[in-house]
Design brief:
Largest sheet of chain A: 6 strands, mixed
Structural class of chain B: mainly beta
Order of helices and strands of chain A: EEEEEEEEEEEE
Mean pLDDT of chain A: 94
Largest sheet of chain B: 7 strands, mixed
Strand content of chain B: over 45%
Distance between the termini of chain B: 36 Å
Order of helices and strands of chain B: EEEEEEEEEEE
Radius of gyration of chain B: 13 Å
Strand content of chain A: over 45%
Helix content of chain A: under 10%
Number of strands of chain B: 11
Distance between the termini of chain A: 41 Å
Number of strands of chain A: 12
Oligomer: heterodimer
Mean pLDDT of chain B: 95
Chain lengths: ~110, ~110
């Protein structure tokens, strides 16, 4: 069975602080894909990143960075110099190769205070 | 491109009523999906389709039906609505094996 755990239900920080959102996953598949999605207060889901299980290279996109470690089954997301517009619920998700279903974590509600 | 569009945005149903949630995409994606998101939870897959004329059940299909007559459209039908179907419904689409792009959601309340 596949499972995604986002242990941090809510995080609140002051603007310009760095913040890391944790994601731990479980799967027996050797090939799989990991995703992060952002759900702002308006409610839509915005795709942020996809990572293949065979590519452990970390990714940086502007103020966003992702750290993938197969040894600890983690795919953590860091926002550097956070801004109020980063306030949202962030979801980590997992999909096995050949499967259609995205398995979502329960989400982390991030609040950036001015 | 409009991406993935959903109608309506909001709907209130009485118990036992039926309705169809509409979903359309203009990205020529083969794959389309319906998810539901309950309060404070992640999304769960209801049904999906890998192409016109092909549909299959996801995790939570009971109480729902789908059809896929065209590549662009993937409506979700609720028959005999129940309070347990109160949720936010998201439609998504993708190329095979690629990331899924989501519509804005439909907030449904059954009372």
């Amino acid at each position: 069975a596949q499972k995604v755990t986002q242990a941090q239900t809510e995080i609140s920080v002051v603007e310009k602080e760095d913040v890391t959102l944790d994601c731990v996953y479980e799967t027996r598949d050797t090939t799989y894909y990991l995703f992060w999605y952002k759900q702002p207060p308006s409610g839509e889901l915005v795709f942020l990143i996809r990572r293949n299980s065979f590519d452990e290279q970390n990714e940086i996109s502007g103020r966003y960075s992702w750290n993938f470690q197969k040894s600890t089954s983690s795919f953590n997301f860091t926002i550097t110099a956070s801004q109020v517009v980063d306030s949202a619920v962030y979801f980590c998700a997992l999909r096995a190769q050949g499967a259609q279903k995205l398995v979502f974590g329960q989400g982390t509600r991030l609040t950036i205070n001015p | 491109n409009a991406g993935v569009t959903q109608t309506p945005k909001f709907r209130i149903l009485k118990i036992g009523q039926s309705m169809t949630l509409q979903c359309a995409q203009d990205m020529n994606h083969n794959y389309m999906y319906w998810y539901r998101q309950d309060p404070g939870m992640g999304l769960k897959l209801i049904y999906y389709s890998v192409g016109a004329g092909i549909t299959d059940k996801g995790e939570v299909p009971n109480g729902y039906n789908v059809s896929r007559s065209t590549t662009e459209d993937f409506p979700l039908r609720l028959e005999l609505a129940a309070p347990s179907q109160t949720s936010v419904y998201f439609c998504a689409s993708s190329y095979p094996g690629a990331e899924q792009y989501f519509g804005p959601g439909t907030r449904l309340t059954v009372t």
